[in-house]
Design goal:
2 copies of one chain form a homodimer. Chain A has 12 helices and 23 strands. With 469 residues, chain A is α+β, with helices and mostly antiparallel strands. Chain A folds into 3 domains: 13-273, BirA Bifunctional Protein, domain 2, CATH 3.30.930; 288-385, Rossmann fold, CATH 3.40.50; 402-468, Translation Initiation Factor IF3, CATH 3.30.110. In chain A, a hairpin with a 4-residue loop joins strand 18 and strand 19 (368-372). The interface between A and B is large, with 50 and 50 residues. Strand 5 of chain A pairs antiparallel with strand 5 (92-97) of chain B.
Chain lengths: 469, 469
């Protein structure tokens, strides 16, 4: 039945994760540069299917896809002061081409503000050009000094970034509300529950007016940021001179926002849904939604195989991708392979099924049943219910591990919310005493009638903390 | 009716091309690094649709998609001697990360042999792992010193590369035949006729045993290489130690091939089909296949618009992407915009059409007719015929400009074929005296019963020459 797989318990999670990403054939970590992994066909297909969901959301909200160059001249990168401060220790520098030293150093984009905005200043002339809503899906680079981890902390990042320009701060705020709606629909399709927090000022994106983080809770009890939304106000439009002529004929600087996600979304799917048998892929992105395993007995070979082929065709006709595993292996070892890869639905066809005009189905989360051969339309409902179940399970896990406390409690795990006066020094002391990082203020904001867990002054809000990736 | 557009005549072609790529909103050349352009939404959509056709062909032929890191350590790049010689003058070097100098320099891939092959040597163990057929679509980088040209000669290249490994030379040869079949189907869908030539030894890919070039003829009478297929034999598998255990239990080095194409395919589409009014997009990749223009007269506004909306819905229902241009502009200026962008089919709906239950259609190549309102299924045939016409037109142009000569003829234009004895010195003298570059030996090979155009020895074959991009 194949090798044993570790269980993703709290203690063993990281070990399990590091192993499963290679066993399930998502990536190969043996590339000769640390933190730059090879996307294998199955992993890349999953990522492309995630990208497809993003593109659907972008189209629905009238964002247009662009693709900007990877390299950014140093002088452009330096235009926004906070931005360069935040990123300068982690960028890769191109200094030579062929045998020549370049006149100006070029950097590999860690994110693309400083690549896009010089062009935005040319594209935008008048209020009629606004809002400008664009996005791109590209490779970005960060020279990570921390321990790398497949999809979660890598040096070449498969990255989604939406960039928008608006007439006013209020229009940009509206965009941020739209981004949150996008995130809700997107993560719901992936069966991933998440929490939204307004990052504390000391942890906002380099150059942002404020930042919102979208975090998930992994079985290790550490949170993973899977998305971020930033209000830039005019912090970039002023140095990059992105101006428009208003209806009154006067010139104004744009207000800007960004929304970013990355291959971490895949990391979250692996971690949150996976179990000791492998991945559990939500049906929305499963490269193979249904796998058919013939259960062959002597004398039945041809009949069973023929029936499986017919079944495959019918399943494809109702719009489900289907793979017939006719390899010369035992059914058990096939079950093992497809569970490892997280295929949502397995269909077995044996002599008894054939006689009874039934098929045996197993959902990847353990539900097993027989359905009538002439009711295969029902497979769609089964997948829907499977998605619902894995979402609910993840949601329960998340909510069970959010702890609203009144005071410091050192043995708290998961996500903690403490009453907070709003002072940076108190926030930082919470971080230190909880041995956690602050995620920020819970959104939507919640009333607080407590005293700050550090200074006992009136707490105006809550501070959310967790151990993080 | 908008500004005048240049005609893509032989003399004015390059000027026309440089202008049209920006006017039709394909790219923006004002990015602050020369030769690195910004893909605008319409251009990027076209490129993505081209990629979709490639992926269909890859799936059909059982190639699996991977995605390898961009950066390659210098020591790996240097493993194949000819390869490094060929590329070392045009690679970008990353030497620093953050504030540190890297221990080993990294280069931005100009092509990915030296990135993939260290992993191939881990993936391949036995003959059962062969053939290995993979591909990726990624950004690659070449430090061009020649004049850059959008999509045709750029420094960041949107690149497709298939890499395969085989048991024997003959299996690799079979792969090359499959690649040629892929190319035929692929370019046919783009209505692009091309010629196939086995490149002369002095112009093969750095590290290849032999190279095949796929070339098209542009209106400037210069050819453009739009694809290349390489037989590597064991030139890479030996230095990269890509070995397998054969059925006999002994170990052998693999035989390898590659097949590459790039955004030049888009360049070819622009150049070959375009005219003085703009692009002509083949229907297979048109982001908008049908545009509807309401022809509005006073008193008819609502009726016409309502009919256009209904029509749009019906056109979408038969599977054609359709845009209803309801902007507040004259029909003429709308015609201008969509002709510029090369939309294959325009539908006009005016009061007369409404009364007669007809619609007026114009194909982008000038054919105009009326069809019955209840026969819109016919739009599909119209698009098919349009594709056929633009293909035929391009094919005629290509064949008209292939000249089979017996001797040097200095005023020959387009593509020339001269009898050749096979000696490099004669080939190079032909290049010099014709002021052309050799494309190579025509494939499939043609008999030759002439004397070499240079030395008058018996010509064993033909040498094809042209001015090239």
């Amino acid at each position: 039945m194949g090798e044993e797989v570790l269980k993703p318990t709290k203690e063993k999670f990281d070990e399990w994760y590091n192993e499963i990403v290679e066993k399930a054939d998502l990536c190969d970590k043996r590339y000769p540069i640390k933190g730059m992994n090879v996307w294998k066909p199955y992993g890349w297909k999953l990522m492309q299917n995630i990208d497809k969901l993003i593109r659907e959301e972008m189209e629905r909200t009238n964002h247009q896809e662009v693709c900007f160059p990877l390299l950014i001249p140093e002088s452009f990168f330096k235009k926004e002061e906070e931005h360069i401060k935040g990123f300068s220790s982690e960028v890769y520098w191109v200094t030579h081409a062929g045998k020549n030293e370049l006149e100006e150093r070029l950097l590999l984009r860690p994110t693309s503000e400083t690549a896009l905005y010089p062009l935005f200043s040319l594209w935008i002339r008048s209020h009629a050009d606004l809002p400008l809503k664009t996005f791109q899906i590209v490779n970005t680079f960060r020279y990570e000094t921390k321990m790398t981890k497949a999809f979660i902390r890598v040096r070449e990042i498969h990255f989604f970034e939406a960039h928008t320009c608006h007439e006013s701060f209020e229009d940009a705020e509206k965009q941020i509300r739209e981004d949150l709606e996008i995130a809700k629909r997107f993560f719901r399709k992936l069966c991933i529950p998440f929490i939204i927090s307004k990052r504390p000022d000391w942890d906002k994106f380099a150059g942002a007016f404020y930042s919102i983080g979208l975090d998930v809770l992994m079985p290790s009890m550490k949170t993973l940021q899977v998305g971020s939304i930033h209000q830039y106000k005019q912090n970039f439009s002023i140095p990059f001179e992105i101006k428009f002529e208003g209806k009154d004929g006067k010139h104004y600087y744009c207000h800007q926002t960004t929304y970013g996600m990355s291959e971490r979304v895949l990391g979250a799917i692996i971690g949150i849904h996976g179990d000791e048998r492998g991945l559990k892929i939500p049906s929305s992105i499963a490269p193979i939604k249904v796998v058919i395993i013939p259960i062959i007995f002597k004398g039945w070979e041809e009949k069973i195989l023929e029936e499986c082929k017919k079944l495959k065709k019918e399943i494809e006709e109702i719009g489900l991708t289907c793979f017939l595993d006719a390899r010369d292996k035992t059914p058990g070892s096939k079950f093992y392979d497809w569970e490892l890869k997280g295929v949502p639905l397995r269909v077995e066809v044996g002599p008894k099924d054939l006689e009874n005009k039934m098929i045996t189905i197993s959902l990847r989360d353990g539900i097993k049943k027989k359905i009538k051969r002439d009711e295969i339309e029902k497979l769609k409902d089964e997948l829907k219910e499977y998605d619902e179940r894995i979402y609910k399970k993840a949601e329960e896990f998340l909510h069970k591990n959010i702890h609203v406390l009144k005071e410091i409690c050192k043995d708290a795990e998961g996500i903690v919310e403490l009453p907070w006066c709003g002072k940076e020094e108190c926030g930082k002391e919470m971080e230190e005493r909880m041995d956690m990082k602050s995620l920020g203020i819970p959104l939507p904001e919640k009333e607080c009638n407590e005293k700050c867990a550090i200074c006992s002054d009136k707490a105006t809000t809550w501070l959310r903390l967790a151990r993080t990736y």
